[in-house]
Amino acid sequence: MTDRTTVAIPLFEGFTALDAIGPYEVLQRIPAFDVLFVGHARGEVRSDNGMLGITRDATFEEVPRPQILVFPGGFGTRVLEHDDRVLDWVRQVHATSTLTTSVCTGALVLAAAGLLTGLSATTHWSTYAELERYGVTPVADRVVEHLDRRLITSAGVSSGIDMALRLVEILVDRTAAEAAQLMIEYDPMPPVDSGSVAKTSDATMTRVIEYASVGRH
Fold first, then answer.
1. DSSP character for 75?
2. Domain covering 5-189 assigned CATH 3.40.50.880 in the classification
3. 192 neighbors 52 (Cβ within 8 angstroms)
4. How far apart are CA 26 and CA 46, in angstroms?
5. Which end of the chain is less congested by CB atoms within 10 angstroms, N or C?
6. How far apart are alpha carbons 69 and 90 in whole angstroms?
7. How many angstroms separate the CA atoms of 166 and 160, rounded?
8. DSSP secondary structure string, 86-97?
9. Which of 64, 54, 62 is nearest to 24 (CA)?
């Protein structure tokens, strides 16, 4: 690796904010890491509910060889699964990347690019079937690694923080990961305990379906 590590985080219409910002908050704490938001064009793009806008620093073509790719998810990934410009860029990046990673339904883009075929991977629990259609075995683990293939996938939304801490541990060392964790005071003690399908109730799942059907996600 070079003295500095470039991390590319694609942003697109309909991305889920924490998918991108969770890893960003971890990775930007490391002085040798340069985090860039990239996309189809420079400038602002809106998150999946339209409430948050983030500026993209560069186009895909302007960042052809980042050492690290973190592909976030969101409803906008469904379009990207059929976007040759994006898929070709993902394949090009992975050819030389140190690690290619995803958060949530970003795994569907990696799968559509052919990077996950025949492997196990994770994504948001609601999209396991979509991942399976690409010949990928979905698993409920929070982070799934295939370091021999330079691939890491993480589950839904908040799991991107866990994945980013693991990236720091791999790329720097454990103490660096612990330092980043302490800097963002990531020590979860949620007042409720329904963060996975295995833990939830029928009433909670009904509420999830209700909220998801409103059209603003």
1. T
2. yes
3. no
4. 22
5. N
6. 8
7. 10
8. HHHHHHHHHHH-
9. 54
Catalytic-role residue among 26, 70, 103, 104? 104
User: For 100, how many CA atoms within 13 A lie in the half-sphere containing its CB?
Assistant: 24
| Domain layout of the chain by residue ranges | 5-189
**Distance from C-alpha of 59 to C-alpha of 208, rounded to nearest angstrom:** 35
pLDDT digits (tens, 9 = 90+) for 149-199: 999 999 999 999 999 999 999 999 999 999 999 999 999 999 999 999 999
Q: Are strands 43-46 and 53-56 parallel, antiparallel or unpaired?
A: antiparallel
State yes or no: is 104 an active-site residue: yes
pLDDT digits (tens, 9 = 90+) for 146-163: 999 999 999 999 999 999
Tokens 């996950």: give the residue: 116
Biggest CA-to-CA distance, the chain: 51
**Residues 199, 181, 96, 15: what is their CA dihedral angle, to the nearest 10 degrees?**
50
